[in-house]
């Protein structure tokens, strides 16, 4: 659709150098209404593109579906109101397989998200502690710390839209066994980028995402941990900080949560047993802990 970025005039002020008008590339942000069988379910502010992945990834995150056979089809339709409205590609109607339980009216009312904070639209924090169909606590994956340290740069190298706008989050899924980058998605909302990754995985019949690492470009919120757990991802790595609630959920769920992955350092906030370090580093850590005890 060519709606990921747009050009807008901007007045650039450089102190000591003057003022000039020029075109600036912006990340597009538009609402997407997600419907199931014609009934409105949620509205999210997103960057257009990969809308089907976004919608079904959202449904996985909310526990509505858990496998590829639960999803049947999706189609963009006209705007709210009359059936003959012009197709703005901002309304997506999802059809689920026969027998899949549809969300009730109360659930639909609380499924409202925005690009800045998906969890704010929930009725309460307790409502998003959804039980996952794909537990991560027994995933015996181990990853090298040195490999984790490389992931932010590998993610950044693939952010084509960010290069143009400077205004998009990204999420990438890596195969921990081979090191392969499986998929990357960008969006104005970090939770939307993750939903698009999970939606890609469901369409590819790859759920649960065992032995994978999810790398995100920003902070690690409660909601991102929830989405990783719901998709069966055992390791979530973030460039920036996690929230306290994100750490609590990761600890409870068995997910390895890593933050501040920058250069040669990182903080492991939950389930460090999955992160391998070399013998020299392990000895240095033990020595430091010994000094701290004294």
Give an account of the 3D structure.
The protein is built from eight helices and 14 strands. With 294 residues, it is α/β, with parallel strands linked by helices. The protein has two domains: 30-128, Ubiquitin-like (UB roll), CATH 3.10.20.10; 143-279, Cytidine Deaminase, domain 2 (3-Layer(aba) Sandwich). The strands form four sheets. A six-stranded mixed β-sheet has the order 9-8-10-11-12-13, sandwiched between helices. Strands 4-3-6-5 form a four-stranded mixed β-sheet. A two-stranded antiparallel ribbon has the order 1-2. The termini are far apart. 40% of the residues are buried.
Poorly predicted runs are: 113-125
Specify the helix fraction band: 25-40%
**Which strand order do you get reading across the main beta sheet?**
9-8-10-11-12-13
CATH architecture of the largest domain: 3-Layer(aba) Sandwich
Which of globular, elongated, flat, extended, rod-shaped describes the shape? globular
Question: Helix count, per DSSP?
Answer: 8
Total number of domains: 2
What letter string, H or E per element, gives the SSE order?
EEEEHEEHEHHEEHEHEHEEEH
- Assign the structural class, choosing from mainly alpha, mainly beta, alpha/beta, alpha+beta, or little secondary structure: alpha/beta
CA(first)-CA(last) distance: 63 Å
State the name of the first-level CATH class of the largest domain.
Alpha Beta
Strand content: 25-35%
| Count of DSSP strands | 14
The biggest beta sheet is recorded as:
6 strands, mixed
Give the overall average pLDDT: 86
């Amino acid at each position: 659709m060519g709606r990921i970025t747009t050009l807008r005039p901007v007045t650039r002020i450089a102190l000591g150098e003057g003022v000039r008008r020029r075109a600036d590339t912006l990340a597009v942000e538009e609402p997407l209404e997600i419907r199931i069988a014609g009934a409105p379910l949620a509205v999210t502010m997103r960057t257009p593109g990969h809308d089907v992945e976004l919608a079904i990834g959202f449904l996985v995150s909310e526990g509505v579906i858990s496998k590829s056979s639960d999803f049947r089809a999706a189609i963009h339709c006209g705007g709210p109101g009359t059936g003959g409205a012009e197709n703005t590609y901002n309304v997506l109607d999802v059809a689920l397989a026969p027998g899949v339980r549809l969300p009730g009216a109360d659930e639909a009312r609380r499924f409202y998200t925005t690009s800045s904070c998906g969890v704010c639209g929930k009725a309460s924090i307790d409502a998003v502690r959804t039980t996952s169909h794909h537990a991560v606590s027994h995933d015996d994956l181990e990853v090298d710390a040195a490999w984790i340290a490389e992931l932010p740069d590998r993610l950044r190298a693939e952010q084509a839209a960010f290069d143009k706008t400077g205004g998009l989050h990204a999420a990438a899924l890596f195969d921990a066994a081979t090191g392969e980058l499986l998929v990357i998605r960008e969006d104005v909302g970090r939770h939307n980028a993750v939903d698009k990754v999970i939606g890609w995985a469901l369409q590819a019949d790859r759920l649960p995402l065992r032995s994978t690492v999810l790398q995100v470009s920003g902070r690690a919120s409660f909601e991102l941990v929830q989405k990783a757990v719901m998709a069966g991802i055992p390791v979530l790595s973030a460039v920036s900080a996690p929230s306290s609630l994100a750490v609590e959920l990761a600890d409870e769920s068995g997910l390895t949560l890593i933050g501040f992955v920058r250069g040669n350092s990182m903080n492991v906030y939950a389930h460090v047993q999955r992160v391998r370090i070399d013998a020299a580093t392990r000895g240095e850590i033990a020595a430091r802990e010994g000094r701290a005890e004294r």
